[in-house]
Amino acid sequence: MSQLKILVLSLSNIIRLGIQQSLSDLNIGAKVYLSSEIDSAKDIIEKLKISLIIVDENIASANEFEKLTTNPDLKILYLSFRSADIFEKMHININQKELGEKLREYINPGKDIKNQEGEKGLSKRENEVVRMLSLGAGNKEIAQKLHLSLHTVLTHRKNIIRKLGIKTTSGITVYAILNGIITIEEATI
Amino acid sequence: MKPFDSKTKLAEAVFQDFNLLRVISRFGIFPGFGDKTIGEICKKKEIDPVFFLIIVNSFTNKRYFPSHELADFSLSQMVSYLQKTHTYYLDFQLPLIGDMIDNLCNNRNPENKKLMVMKQFFSAYRKELTDHINREEKITFPYVLRIEQIFSNSESIQGKESDYDMLTYEKEHDNVEEKLIDLKNIMIKYLPEPFDHEMVIRILTELSWLEKDLNEHSRIEDTIMIPRVKIMEVGIRKRF
User: Fold this and answer.
1) Using only C-alpha atoms, what is the Rg of chain B?
2) Is this complex scored with an ipTM above 0.85?
């Protein structure tokens, strides 16, 4: 799973640093970049594969801003000084808790965090995916052998990471050995 | 919390965060400093108090950011500090944890063959961190020092420096701690019995310290070193 990268774009130094601090306090593991002008923002977005821009509406109203919005995967959250009347806007007076909720909704639309709690252990299918991953199989190979679509394999992988709290493939391999899913002789770490 | 200044007694700072002892040891300061202030100790040890305070304050307070006038220290000083922390990881902290993990895995009593995999996983992490450190030592730090030199001598950038910049470094500077977090997670949640419980707690203590220290190390790089080098890069480019 790739790290969430957020670019904060505003003319105001105080706003940039304020948002950076609030994001860091949320502890969501996001990497935050700051920019005050569109050209350098464009550079950062392309080179660093930014997934979300938080932009102050003063800068978003400039014509050149459209240059930044050509990538459909890039999400944009507008910081508004007047009203946050649409989902894509947040008001400057947003509090810390609301900011956390806003980002969660924004990054994972439709996912209710509360529903995910209480899930324990891996399903039979997820265990099979863990086994194959630990034996060194890639996504495509897993899809073929288990007769799944690539998309389903990726979903299983995401769920495994979330349930176990283990991100790296070598970490998952260690888990598989410790839990007897594969033997130490079968694995390469 | 008020930041420490040169009149703060060093002992008082250490009382606030015991782990500071591990940080100040990199400046050659060890317990036994009595009631001396930070200013007095720096003078005696010929350490730049401005730089020392940046390190100590940013270590004890996550929100600390040096004010403008304080940011005027040399990058070579910063690089030399970062190199000392690298040496600490490579020569002290990683071998220490490595020995403890060997001890956990090789322990015949209780016997648990599965634990051997922890040793392999730690070696993989150790190699990854070592490679990351070597890359910084070979490429990033020399680049930073060169930029500072070019900036202060009003030279212009030519040749190989222009292929590498701080943005490239920022891009690479991700996720060295993923395996470390996995290692901690596995030891806390998934270690199968039997094992030496006391040893696992001690390993986790040292892994957590390494994690905090690494986070602090990269925070200094990200919030203090990178922005300063970037300002210099812009300044140098404007000379054309």
Assistant:
1) 21
2) no
* Residue whose tokens read 């009149």: B7
Q: Where are the domains of chain B?
A: 10-70, 74-237
Burial class of residue B146, CB neighbours in 10 A (0-12, 13-18, 19+): middle
Which residue from B113, B118, B178 is facing A168, i.e. has the nearest CB? B178
Q: Do A178 and B192 touch (CB under 8 A)?
A: yes
Residue in B65, B171, B186, B234 to test binding to A, most A beta-carbons within 10 Å: B186
Superfamily per CATH, domain A5-114: Response regulator (3.40.50.2300)
Q: Which amino acid is at A78?
A: Y
Per-residue pLDDT 10s for chain B (240 aa) are 688 999 999 999 999 988 899 999 999 999 999 999 999 999 999 999 988 998 999 888 877 776 655 567 788 888 999 999 999 999 999 999 999 999 998 866 667 888 889 999 999 999 999 999 999 999 999 999 999 988 888 776 665 456 788 888 887 776 678 899 999 999 999 998 889 999 999 999 999 999 989 988 888 888 888 888 888 888 887 776
Burial B216-238 (b: 16+ CB within 10 A, else e): bbbebbebbbbebbeebbeebee
| Residue B139 contacts A where some CB pair is shorter than 8 Å | no
Q: How many CA atoms lie within 13 A of A136 on its CB side?
A: 5
CA A159 to chain centre: 14
The span from the CA of A32 to the CA of A8, in Å, is: 7
For domain A124-178, give the CATH number.
1.10.10.10
B56: its two tokens? 């100590």
